[in-house]
Amino acid sequence: MRGIERTAHRITARFGAAAPLALCERMGVCVLRLDLPKRVRGFCLRGARNEPVIVLGKSLRGIEREYCCAHELGHLVLHPGLNAQVIGDLTHLCAPRFEKEADFFAACLFIDPHLEEWRRVYNPLTREQIAALTGLPERVVGLRFEDRAF
To answer: Under a CB-based contact definition with an 8 Å cutoff, are residues 103 and 71 in contact?
Structure first.
């Protein structure tokens, strides 16, 4: 997971943004908002000219939209050329690992434990409290701090 953390920090430094939608714009990733089935919040793909595209459910709002965008961006960055859904459907191999990595990438965009202000504000808090404050799913906050003492 350290490699994913470094990748997330390298990308945010290079493009000068950590907010997922702004980051996508600066990276040239097209983000579309479409009506999707309720169980599908978003997905990513490569277009006809291999351009990266993220499709988000039109019903997503606020932090849920940003988080879903960050998760899909994680797939584009970490798993280029792979379609975890197809892999999972056809082979049942490693799809949960790809999802966990994309979740971790997204958490790295939202929570940077190296920032002094972050430590000052969040360090005394529990995972549940951080999830409530950031709007991120508690399981994602847990991923971010898996190997760190709280």
So the answer is: yes
